[in-house]
Each structure stands twice: as C-alpha cells, then as structure tokens.
Design goal:
The protein has two domains: 405 residues, MFS general substrate transporter like domains (Growth Hormone, Chain: A), CATH 1.20.1250; 53 residues. Helix 5 packs across helix 16. The chain is built from 17 helices and no strands. It is an all-alpha fold and 501 residues long. Helices cover 83% and strands 0% of the residues.
Amino acid sequence: MTEPEAGQDAAAGTQPWRALAVCLTAGFMTLLDVSIVNVALPSIRVGLGAGDAALQWVVSGYSLTFGLLLVPAGRLGDARDRRKVFMLGVSGFVVASVACGLAPTPAWLVGARLVQGGAGGAVLPQVSGYIQESFQGKDRGRAFGIFGAVVGISTAVGPLLGGLLIELFGQHEGWRWVFYVNVPVGATAVVLAAKLLPKGRVRGRTRNARMDPVAVVLLGTGVTALLLPLIELRSWPVAALAGGFAAAAVLLTAFTLWEHRYQRRDPEAPLVALDLFAKPSYVFGSALAGCYFAGFTAIFFAVTLFLQSGEHESALVAGLTLTPFALGSAASAAVGGRIVHKFGRRMVVAGAATVVVGVLATAFAATQADQADMSAALTGPLLVAGLGSGLVISPNLTLTLSDVPVERAGSAGGVVQTIQRIGAALGIAAIGSVLFSRIAHAPHDWTGAFAASLCAVAVAVAAALLVGVADVVHDARRERKQEQEQQLGTADEEVTVRRRR
C-alpha cells in the first residue's frame, strides 16, 4: 500500500468519529436548553416582567414541541436524507435562539421557545440514527457511551452555565445570553455538518420512502393531549385533566390501529414499525427509559429549586452543586459504553441501584446539614448518583436499539426519546406536586419538602431498576431454554447416529 492510500484509509477511519463530534455538539446544544433556562427564570421575570404562566411555558413549551417532532423527524431522516434534516433542524434552532434572545415581550419569548423546541426535536433523533448507521459492535457501544456522557453533561451543566452567564451579564439582561450562546455553536455545527456528514442514501435506507401523514397527525395530537395535562397538572381543573388524558388514550389507540393497518399494506412506509415492540430488548429498554427519566430529570428540578428558592442561593451556586453529578455521569457513561456488550442489562441495573442510593443519600444529607454548608453537603451524594446515571442512559440506549434494523434507526430512537420526554414530564409533574404540596402545608420547611421530593425520585428510579431486573431474568430464561433445546437436539442426533449404525 502506498503512503497516500494509507493516509486515505486513516482519514476514512476517523471520518465517522469526526462526524459524530459534530452531531454530539448539536445534540449537546439542544439538550442544554432543557435545563439551562431553569436558572434563568428569575432573570426573565425581572427583565421582561413575565408572570408565572409565561415562565412555566418558557420551560414546558420547549419540552412539548421537542417531544412532538422526535418521531416524525426521525422517520424523515430514515426515509430521505439524515444530513439535510440535521442541518435544517440546527439552522432552525439557531434562528429561534436569536429570536428568544431578542424577545421584547413574554409572548414573543414563549413563541420562539416553541419553535426552538421543535427544531431541537428534529436534531436529536438524527444523532442516534447516525450512530446506528455508522458504527458496529464495540464501536457502536463506545459511540453511544459518548452520547450518554453528552446527555448527562448537558442536563447537569445547564444550571452552571446559566448561572455563569447571569453573573457575567447581570440579572436584567443575563437571560438573553442563555440563548445567544447557542448561535456560534449551532452555526459552526451547520458548517461542519455540510462537510463531514454523509450525503444522500446510506446503508439499509430505502430511496424515496413515503411518509405517513395520518400517523404523524394522530401521534402528534396524541402526544400533545398527553403532555399538556402533565405540564398543566397544577393549573387545570380535574375535569380538564381527565379529558386530556382520555383524548390521549383515544388518539394513541387510533394511531396504533392505523399503523397496524398501514404496515400490512406497505411495510416500508409506517411512521413507527409496530413490530419493533415484538423485540423484548426494545420493549424493556423503552419502559426503563421512561421510568428512569421520570426521576432523572426531576433531580435537577428539585435541586435548583431548593437551593434558589429555599436556601436563597444564586444560580451559580446551584449550578456548581450539580457539577459533580455531571462529571460523574460523563465519566461512567464513557466507560459504560465500552463494556456494555460484556455485562448487558446487568450493568444498567447496577447503575440504577447506585442512583437510588445516591439520591436517598442526598435527601439524608440535606436533612442533616446546616444552611451554610448545604451546597457542599449535597455534592458528594450527587456525585454517587451521577456515577450511577452514566451506567444507565447510554448503555440502555445501546441495548434498546441493538436489534433495530438500520433503516429504522431514526424513528426507533425517536420513539425511545419521546418516551423519555413523556417520562420526564410525568416526573416533573408528580415530583413537583410532592414538593409544592409539602411547601403549601409547611412554607418554611423547604428541607423536608426537598427530601420528600428526592424520595419520590428514588421511587421512579427504582421502577426503572425493576424493569431492568425483569429484562435480566427474561434473558436468563431465554438462554436456559436455548441451551435445553441445543442439548435435546444433540441427544436426538446421537440417537439417529446409533440407529444408523
């Protein structure tokens, strides 16, 4: 081999990883905006004069439209051109971020956040789809491990970065820079994506595959009907909540029936291939992801609210307190991605158990610490929880998508991420209700309310742990059955050989 050829091979070997770095940069940006805005809410209230309803929609509106676009955008990337969908989503995110930063009124900001969330929802499934398409075996686990580290870091570092920006630019205007920071990152990602991401068709993709518009409408309205009551759980009357959940049940049932019929008519065209749910790894992994994110997302909600509203700490202190969780999660996710194929779902179970221990230890530390030492008292147990979290998110995603065909990588990943968003909304609603109801009965007992909310977080994570245990047991039974069948087959062959003799 000549030297130029060797150089070309080396470049080809590094190309997928360079493209992955671009995808993860954009993914980090979209996930960061889930958490970074939480610490900016007091600044938005001061700068724009926003009321409670507007502030709630600045946070929840993003999550709503983010969740709505995950599956359709994932399917669009599968069916057409993942690179174009990725670049369009990142470009839309940058434009929406500028609009957020320039917002003159609360209504403008809420509208821009809705657009920003939809653009983010278009980007994220392209990341998991790209990993599924471009990597195999241990490299795929390693790539998903890095992706998991990005998820953990982006969610936990958001409060820290938001706090730094508000400290730097002031309480009145600091919130605008929470959005402006996305502009150089997103613009760079678009330029590099045009150069590094593969163009056109990739392995396993069907040319000009059709979309399923009826399914898009049914799924979109169904997810909206489910998420809106969760977002407005403390605001809507009981009748409205019940009506929303009933409508969600009807719409999602209609979606399932439609997809079943549509897939029989054209196996390549459904928005979500329902036969994915015949794969135990996908079913267990999706259920585990929903339960885990119900607790995982609420950790940051509870910690930042407790420190800022209960302990009257700054946004920067709240962010610093969560930094050990981010660092622990990043470190263990990178390791977990490398060894997930060796330990399988058992590693996820161990990670979830560690998170339960860390969260309960955080609750205990809060009840024992003096107010002056509260932030320092929480960092150790949060580090333990972060170490466990890194062994859950990315390894679980690797295992969940392990049996998914490449041509369904984006839509399958979008479904899992939608389930994560629903779990997160449910967790925030339920665990937030625990916290606020305790505050309503004892306005000065923020520590007790915080500890109670973390106990609720531990229950959600324990539910994820039980799902993981069920999967481990299922796999063990399947392996025993296969061994018995092999032994019977061997015995039958020996009997046949003896008869011939």
